[in-house]
Amino acid sequence: MKRIVFFTAMLYVTTLTAQDSIRPLLTLKRAVAIALENNYDIKLASNDLKIDEQNVSWANAGMLPNVSATFNQDNAIQNSTQTRSDGTVQELDNARNNNRNYGVNLGWTIFDGLRMFARYDQLQELEKLGQTELKLTVLTAVSDVMTTYFDLVQQQQMLKALDTAIVISRQRVTTAENRFTIGKAARLEVLNAQVDLNTDQTNYLRQKELYRNTKTYLNELMARDLATDFVVADSVVIDTKLQLADLMALAGQQNPQIQIALINKRVAELNLKQVKANRYPQIAVTTGYIFTESENSLGFARENSGRGFSYGLSASINIFNGFLQRRNERIAKLQIDNTDVQVKQQAQSVNSQLMAAYQTYLTNLELVGLEKRNEEIARQNLDITMEKYRIGTITTLEVRTAQLNYVNAIARNSTAQYNAKVSETTLRELAGNIAF
């Protein structure tokens, strides 16, 4: 009996494996690569970073001059009357007056209290902020893909366990029918075995539905055709050597949320420099080359034209603006204080999450070893129970209990492995260094 059940189950699993081989294998590395290439959130963050990169320029900081070309044309038609100093009067209806000027002008702020330099440094910090936000988006997307992938591995293992349960239940139905035929069992035993088989098939269908929905979600994370079919790996490898001190050290250097808080503090400091620049004079120079032309139908000068350079210097300084300068500086300093608090708060939060996640990680590692032993024990118990059932020394209830214990042991074992891998992934994400 034990050999029959074993070989029947192996045949069933082999058939499923053959069916899976028809579908392409999606490795974790490949899933992450597809997500990095297609994920919508990553694309949006990448475009935001490109905008930040374009903003880093001397012109955007106000360091370069402005050069503009101008052209003005004014025309008038008037009924004009002129009285000269000698009393002579001239009149002309529909007199035309045309004025035209054009040229090139240059304006350049040569000193603004060093605001332009602080602004340029701030633009560079905003570019770093965009890079860090992109890294955070990538880490989040990769973590989601990995967690969903490990979930599929767990569900795939559960499907195989339920397949095995169906094989055993079918064998029970066959055995019960044989025992009923020769008069060693009542019809109730056959009915109970058939109910258990139907229950196992229902559980399998529910698990298969969850498995397919999770595959759809993984395809969504990878931003590809949702109907793409695939299979995942049979198992996962868990890193059992992570150390909390190393993870905290990495988080202090690489965690994107901490880095974002630090960059925001630097941006606030540079904003204070720009506010203080209003205390200093603003000096600008202007120059240009201008052409002027005018035509008058009435008057001493019928035509007038000119050309040449123009240049000038302007300077201004804020003497009093209703104490707004003092107010703006105080607000800028308070913003720096807030960002400093946020840096400390974020570091504290990340370390707290790391400590909690690490304790969960250690617990899950212990559960992996425990549930693996439980699965082996449940398998041995099922073999012994099926052998006793064959010779009629135990009830069908005991057989069903052993069968459920075996399926549940497999489920707990795969769940423990999944939880341990998710804990590992969470720790690496918090440390800002996900490996796959």
Give the amount of beta strand, in percent. 15-25%
For the report, how would you describe the main beta sheet? 4 strands, antiparallel
| CATH-level-4 superfamily name | Outer membrane efflux proteins (OEP)
N-to-C order of helices and strands: HHHHEEHHHHEEHH
Using only CA atoms, what is the Rg?
40 Å
Main location: membrane
Protein name: Transporter
GO cellular component, one term: cell outer membrane
Keywords: Cell outer membrane, Membrane, Transmembrane, Transmembrane beta strand, Transport
Question: Outline of this structure?
Answer:
By secondary structure, the protein is an alpha+beta fold.
Question: Could you give the topology of this structure?
Answer:
Elements: H1 2-22, H2 28-38, H3 40-55, H4 58-61, E1 66-83, E2 89-111, H5 115-181, H6 187-221, H7 244-254, H8 256-276, E3 282-296, E4 303-316, H9 324-391, H10 396-431
Antiparallel strand pairs: 1-2, 2-3, 3-4
Helix pairs in contact: 1-5, 2-5, 3-5, 5-6, 5-8, 5-10, 7-9, 7-10, 8-9, 9-10
Family: Belongs to the outer membrane factor (OMF) (TC 1.B.17) family.
Keywords: Cell outer membrane, Membrane, Transmembrane, Transmembrane beta strand, Transport
InterPro entries: OMP_efflux (IPR003423), TolC-like (IPR051906)
